[in-house]
Structures are given as structure tokens and as C-alpha cells.
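TICKET: design request
STATUS: open
ATTACHED STRUCTURE:
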């Protein structure tokens, strides 16, 4: 059953062949393990980045605290809303939000308008922090966003709102999170009103 190897030279050659095969197997296993470790590290990094972006897209959004409009007479003497004043804050769990990088979309009976809040037709007055700083960094920060609607001026956009008009406004932050509100102008705007809640 077992063969006795009497020739000593034959015995050494069998041992070297086995050793070479063993070393080759170890090298192949090491290379495969290196490839798996690199792939796992790449996938982990990509998953972390995707998770952070997804979280920002959901949580880094604005919260509308109040919304009002400035009431005045247009060129024909009709009472209209010619400017929107919207107070915004960070939504719960949001990170820092730069209002200059926030875009606004207006949709209503007069069509659709898109612009950034650093455009000439928009103003930002932040209640906390330094006057030039327009980044909401804390849940207690508030900012008043003014949007000029009067298209007869060089900075106006969309057009004045008359009594009974509706306007949908959407804020989109730099991370892609959106906040939408529907503004409704009262059916009657009186001469005594200089502003109205929308």
C-alpha cells in the first residue's frame, strides 16, 4: 500500500514541489484578500457619503414661521400685494443653511419663476448674528425673506397678486431639501391695509 522511497534524491524533489504549490496558494489567497479589503473599504466610503447626502437632503430644510404681503396700489389704483415677506428658520435637526444658496420657485396663475435668494428681487434680513451673515446656524435663528413681485420695477419678478389669488412658493436649500407653502391673498384688500397675512 505504501511505497518506500529508497532514493534520497527523489524524496527531496517531492518535498520542494509541495512547498512551491503551498507558497503559490498562499500568494493567491493574499492577493484575493487584498482585493476584497480594498473593495470593502471603497464600498464603505461610498455608503457613508451616500448616507450623509441623503440625510442632508431630508433634514437640511427651511421651516416657514410666518408669511405676509405688502399691500399697495398698482398703476390702475387697484389694491394689490406687491411684496412677499416670509420669515424662515431651520427645521428640526437641520445643519447650517446658507440662504444665498437657496433657490425659490413661484407657481401661480401668472406662470412660474425661479431665482436664488441672492438675486436683486430678494432681500434677506437676519434677526440673529451679524447683519451681513445670511447663514442659519441655530434653531433659534430667524430670517425675513422679502421678494419683490412688482414687475414694473427693475427688480420685480412674477407680478402683483390681486385679491383671491393663490401662489405656491417652494424653497430649495443647497442640499436639495425642499419646503413648499401655498399663499392665499384675501378676496378683499382695503385701503386701510398696508400688509396682510397670506
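STATUS: resolved
RESOLUTION: sequence designed for all positions
ATTACHED SEQUENCE:
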Amino acid at each position: 500500500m505504501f511505497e518506500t522511497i529508497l532514493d534520497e534524491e527523489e524524496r527531496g524533489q517531492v518535498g520542494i514541489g509541495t512547498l512551491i504549490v503551498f507558497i503559490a496558494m498562499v500568494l493567491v489567497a493574499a492577493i484575493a484578500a487584498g482585493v476584497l479589503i480594498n473593495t470593502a473599504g471603497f464600498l464603505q466610503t461610498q455608503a457613508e457619503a451616500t448616507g450623509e447626502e441623503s440625510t442632508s437632503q431630508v433634514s437640511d430644510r427651511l421651516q416657514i414661521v410666518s408669511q405676509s404681503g405688502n399691500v399697495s396700489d398698482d398703476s390702475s389704483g387697484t389694491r394689490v400685494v406687491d411684496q412677499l415677506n416670509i420669515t424662515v428658520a431651520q427645521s428640526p435637526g437641520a445643519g447650517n443653511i446658507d440662504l444665498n444658496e437657496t433657490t425659490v420657485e413661484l407657481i401661480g396663475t401668472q406662470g412660474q419663476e425661479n431665482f436664488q435668494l441672492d438675486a436683486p428681487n430678494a432681500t434677506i434680513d437676519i434677526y440673529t448674528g451679524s447683519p451681513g451673515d445670511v447663514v442659519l446656524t441655530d434653531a433659534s435663528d430667524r430670517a425675513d425673506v422679502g421678494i419683490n413681485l412688482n414687475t414694473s420695477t427693475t427688480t420685480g419678478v412674477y407680478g402683483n397678486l390681486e385679491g383671491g389669488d393663490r401662489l405656491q412658493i417652494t424653497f430649495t436649500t443647497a442640499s436639495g431639501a425642499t419646503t413648499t407653502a401655498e399663499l392665499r391673498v384675501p378676496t378683499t384688500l382695503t385701503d386701510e391695509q398696508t400688509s396682510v397675512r397670506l
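CLOSING REMARK: The first strand starts at residue 62 and ends at 73. The chain has one helix and eleven strands.
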